[in-house]
Each structure stands twice: as structure tokens, then as C-alpha cells.
Amino acid sequence: MFAVVYIRVSTEDQARYGYSLEGQEQVCYKKAKELGAVRVEKFLDVGVTGEILERPGLQAALSAVRAGARWFIAYDPDRLSRKLSHQLFLAETIEKTGCQLEFVNFEWQNTPEGRLFFSLRGAIAEYEKEKFKIRSMFGKRTKAKRGLLTHSPHLFGYRYEDGRLYVDSGQAIIYRRMVEMVLEGLSPERIAQVFNKQGIPAPKGRHWYRGTIRRILKNPTYTGMIYLNRYNTEGIKAARQRGEQRSPTLRSDNEWIAVPITPMVTKEEWEKVQNTLKKNKRGRRGQTVNYYLLSCLLYCGKCGSSVHGNFNNGYRYYVCAKRHVSGYDYKKVPVRCDSSFLRADQVEDIVWNKVKEWLSDPEGILQAADLRVSKNSAIEGEIKILVNRSIELDDERERIFLAYRRGKISLDDFDRAVSEVAREKEGVEKRLNELESKLSSEVDAARSVELLKEIADRVADKLDDLDDADRREVIRAVIQRITVHDTELILDVKIPLTDTVCVME
Fold it and tell me: How far is CA 141 from CA 136, 159, 289, in A?
């Protein structure tokens, strides 16, 4: 006879309850020996929320139960789940296989009274968890409104102590030097080279990179204000652990909480730094800055990486980021892309001529846009149907749980039904994402068409006289992405036109 020991722990559990892997393991193994287990198998879920059932350790433990385990041992019922419905479902699943459910600090009895007490305890625990979340959120907001930080922002130039940021004198000198160097005309790349040569310590590791310098210089927090409560992260952790792609959403600015800190730069200086970074994005002081009209629009058709400008032998080129790598970046990209170097002037002429062709016929583009307006209502209708179906599937999943708990369906039927619902739910969510993305692009397209007509009316008679900055603005109003192949460019346009392929000579 053997026992299954299931252990789950998260950072929140350790902070709130004092749970730990070692502590749970020790008392659970002791319980197993007291029950008479000859063999013990341990299953872990570390850092996984108790709000979901799709946990690797838990599913493996349930498989061991079905394989003939005599006891299933956990430290506490909330180690099984944070939700009462899930606790009840797991308890019945384990008991129906003939395995005996045991807890270290709770006596489980598979009787009507025992299940009632188990349910009451679980409901109270779930209520306490929600109250804890509310109190924690309220406490953080109250702390922020008092001018204290709720966590360390890991901001270069400052050290975090007891809810406040204090200036780190050593790093502050480095930041001020960055500001002075960029205002003198040095590029972030050149600043990184100087710092590395002089052995100045970087925020992480030993080496400075151009992106690190730019990120620090572009951060407005150094003007003396940091904002908390900017993002809503509720449910993100559980969704990501279920394998869903979810990102925090930006709250409206009236919900942000401003916390003042000691400034390192005036707002006027910071604005000058931003303008300098825009004007002199590449090149060292005293050298000619090469202008790349299609910067940040090009992507490699072979590996998908961004394509950037490169000056070599007196010519400007566009080259894949995974082909033209050197130094420390090469260690991160051991396999180089074999795409070709492309003459920047040739690529830019092809794209600009195509844009001029579109701008010469804005009325035709408007007619093309009108043909798509009627499609939006159909998309919105399908989205509404799919949203309702998604809600129905959630309800259906809960009904399946309820039916299984009441013994109306077998475990095999339950697994099959849940899998079918999950499969349909995945298809619905995928289609919803596609439609919402399409609808969003249609709205953006309508705006882009109006912008295109406005631009065409303003510059149609002087397209050939525009400088590089104006041409770049026009191109970005029309084109969203350009995929680069050895013999062709594929233009992904914002306006409602078929993707255009420009064959290169």
C-alpha cells in the first residue's frame, strides 16, 4: 500500500500562512507513516495558484490515485484548491477511486455531516481569501496615497527602503553623466561603449547596451514622479498558468496614484534629451547620421526578426538583426540568419513609389473602404453570438462538475464531457480573437483612409519635394509592416487594400 502526498505552495501562501515546501513535506510524510504507508510518492506544484485545476502536480497525483494509491494526503484542504466547488469535486473524485483522503490539520469524514463541515470550512476560507485580496488592495492604495511605494520599482539611480526611494549617489552620478553625454551629441550606443570601456557597473551584469541606455534616458520617472496603480493585473496569473495569453490592462489615468520622488533631471532637460534622441538616433558625435526611411517597419521574411539599417563601404543597407550581430549579442544569437544585405536606397525607392501611387488616387481608396463598411456589422453580430456561446460553455462546465459531484455521471463521462467543452471553448476563443482583431483593424483602416486623404490633399502636388522626415511620416500613415525577402517586399498596409507585393530588381 502506498500514499500520495500532494504539496502546493506559492509566495502568497508563505507570506500569509507561513507554508513552505519543507514544512508541508515533513508533516505529510509523518502522517503517511502513522497511517501505515509502506511507499510514499510526492507531487509538487510550486508557484501555481490554487484557483485552477490544471496544475501539473495535481493532475499527476490524481493519476497516481487512479493507479491504486491507498491514501491521498495534503496539509490542508486549501492546498487542493482555493475554490469550494473545486475542493468538493476533488474530494469526491479521490474518494470514488477507493482512495482515502487525509489532511494533516483537518479531519475529513466522508459522511453527510463531514461533507457539510468540509463545505462550511471551504466557504469560509474562500470568503477570507477574497476579503484578504480586498484588504490587501485597499492597504496598497492607502499606502500609495500616503506617498509610499508598495514595492520596489528597481529604478536605476535609486535604492528602495521602507516604501521610499532614496537617491543612490553613485548611480545618480552615472545617470547625470548619461544626460550630459546625450545632450553633447553622443548616441546611446556610443555612451554604452564608453561606459563598458571605463568599467562602469551596469544595472544588471557587467555590460551596458544601447537599449539599456535608451530605456533609462526615456523614462520620465526621473523628473520626480512615479505612478502606481496604472495596470489592472487581476486574474492574469491564473490565466497564464492555464496557458492563456493575457496581459495587464492600462487603467484610466484618473485611477493612477502619483508618488513624488527626488528628481534627477528637470522636465526641461528631460524634454531636451527626448528631442536629441529623436534627432540623433544613430551615429557618433562628429559623424554623419545616416537616415533610414523605413526604420522599425522592416522584418525578415526568413526568420521574422527586425531588419535595421547598417552603413558599410560608403553605402546604406538594411540587414536582418540575426545576421548582423557581434560582440555580446552574438552569444545570444549563435545561429545567424543567412538573409541578404539590401541596398537601402533601392528598397526605399520601391516603397516610396508605391506610396506615391496610392496617394495619387485617394478617391479610389475611399471607394474600396466603402465596400468594407457593411462587413463590420456582420463581424459584430458574430462576435455577440460567440460571446454568448462562451458564457454558455462556462455554465455547461459548471453543470458537468455538479453532475459528477452528485454521482449522475461516471468519471470517464466527466473527463470526456469536460474535454469536449474545453475543446469547443478553445475554438470559440480563437475565433473571437480573430474577429476582434479584424474589427479593430477595420476601424483603424477607416481612420487611416481619412488620414490618407488628408495627407494626399495636403502634399499630393509636392510629393517629390518632401524631405526624409516628412516622407517617413507619410509612409507610416499608410504602411504598418514590411516583410523583406531576397527578391520581394510584402507591404502590410493600414488602408483597406490587398497586401501589395513589390518585386525587387
Answer: 9, 21, 47
